[in-house]
From TrEMBL:
The gene is Rabl3. Signal peptide: none annotated. Pfam families: Roc. One of its GO terms (molecular function) is GTP binding. Belongs to the small GTPase superfamily. Rab family. Required for KRAS signaling regulation and modulation of cell proliferation. Regulator of KRAS prenylation, and probably prenylation of other small GTPases. Required for lymphocyte development and function. Not required for myeloid cell development. It comes from the Eukaryota. This is Rab-like protein 3. InterPro entries: P-loop_NTPase (IPR027417), Sigma_54_int_dom_ATP-bd_1 (IPR025662). Keywords: GTP-binding, Nucleotide-binding. It comes from Cinclus mexicanus.
Amino acid sequence: MAALDRVKVLVLGDSGVGKSSLVHLLCHNQVLGNPSWTVGCSVDVRIHDYKEGTPEEKTYYIELWDVGGSVGSATSVKSTRAVFYNLVNGIILVHDLTNKKSSQNLYRWSLEALNRDVAPTGVLVTNGDYDREQFGDNQIPLLVIGTKLDQIPETKRNEVLTRTAFLAEDFNAEEINLDCTNPRYLAAGSSNAVKLSRFFDKVIEKRYFLRDGNQVCHFS
């Protein structure tokens, strides 16, 4: 069998938001039993059928790069992460729905990965001070995923999900909210599964088919 083409997707967010559990669920459709802190970066692979069910269907490898979420003040921390940000085709921004600060920090993570970070060790947005134009010309597909949905009381969910919907709007990205300990949130045919597939299709298109809005040929 011919080798599959692949794309590189960063998985970014603060420590403890559940990035490793999410990546394991995405790649193996299984719950990660004993998640541990990621040091540096961990890479796992998901097989994705681009435009599944159409004549253009083709199988790709999605490399998910789970980057350690330390937000330490040392410049060396950022410099170490920078080596993982090369040749990126897509970014999944992960936040903990029970931790508002982890949501705010997604702006910092995205700017750092896009080499536009002006304050690498602090939160770039608080109380609506975010400038949406910072991401106006970003060409890398983004997806926002909120974890630990199960830990939000039913009486608080509407309030929290309304707030995070604005977060996804700022990034011009689709949003998925889930519990990484329950695979049903990504069950085939569910709205979350459709959003995820659409995101991966967009990443593949940007990498292999689109250049300045025009289709280009890719030779394996």
